[in-house]
Amino acid sequence: MARWTRWRRAGRWGAIVCAVKRRIALSLAIGCAYGLLTYWLLVLRNPATQASDFTYPWLAARAVAHGVDPYSDVRTHPTPHEHALFYPMPAAFVALPFAWLPVQIAGAAFVGVGCALLAFAITKRDSWRLLIFATAAAFQAAWSVQWSPLLMASALWSPALGLIVAKPNLALPLLAYQTSRRAILYAIIGGGALLAVSLALEPAWPLHWYQTIHNAPIASQYRVPILTPWALMLLLAALRWRTRDGRLVLAMACVPQNFFFYDQLPLFLVARTRLQLFFMVIVSWLARMIPFFHPMRAVDNAELSVKYIPLMMLGAYLPALVCIFERPNVESADDI
């Protein structure tokens, strides 16, 4: 009997190891696929775009590696958009492992790593959750070389939750998504450590960051959804505040963001069935394709972001609201 019990335990552990290996292999495949997609998109676009939005933390990381103030150094380099660093100093430390790579390869690697980690995190329970990579928001995150996949992965693996200080506008929603005090503690310790190191190296960076954001016209493209004409619809999420999904949607509605789809990728975590996620994938692409058939003219990204607000509401927020109202106002046992 004892020998049979040992065999059963060995078989159970063997099955677990095989499942983890499959998850790792699948996650690496998705990371490589999205990394290659990002590189292809960057090469396809004008070379002046470099690594799109990741160009700025990449430049900041190289400045930190050479002991130079990144907020001053970024202004001396050609950049895809504004000649200024809009990220807090911890973003430069997170980008340090990619600083030695050429800018476009660095951007592709950054997206690939983020997507691989996110894929591993969301397949902890079900592989169908990988449909999140088929959303328009995931594609847009690759196109613009964004932080959302990496930060979503950190939200699902709480020891890495401190990374949210690299992009503070997503911090509140990803904290609201947590269900344990331990996760909040991880965020405080990890985020605090990143902030402490950055302040030790450059004590004045918070002032430089504030001045950069305050004086930059591009900051006007970031709007708080709850303050738009769609506010009444978004306030409905408060009726599901007892669930992590309801808190996520409500918190997302209360933080500044632009409306080019990639910032809203965390909203797709609310899907709890294959059908819900498939529904969100289809609707996201229907909304994203509208500008291709009816181009939106704007003088700059700030004006274009405002024009995208209805599309974002229809393509991300409204489907998320539908999903959270299909369940009772209690914590789901089906959480990731």
Radius of gyration: 21 Å
| Coarse structural class | mainly alpha
Percent of residues in beta strands:
under 5%
Quantity of strands, as a count: 0
Give the number of helices. 15
Percent helix, as a range, is: 55-70%
Q: List the helices and strands in order.
A: HHHHHHHHHHHHHHH
- Spans where pLDDT lies below 50 across 5 or more residues: none
General shape: globular
Oligomeric description of these chains: single chain
**Major sheet size, sense and barrel closure:** none
Distance between the termini: 36 Å
Kindly state the mean pLDDT as a whole number? 90
Structural account:
By secondary structure, the protein is mainly alpha-helical. Helix content is 59%, strand content 0%. It is built from 15 helices and no strands. The protein has helices spanning 2-44, 55-65, 70-73, 89-94, 103-122, 136-144, 148-156, 171-176, 181-201, 205-215, 231-235, 244-252, 274-293, 301-307, 309-324. Helix 5 (103-122) runs parallel beside helix 7 and helix 13 (274-293) runs antiparallel to helix 15. The longest helix has 43 residues, at 2-44. The two termini are 36 Å apart. The relative contact order is 0.11.
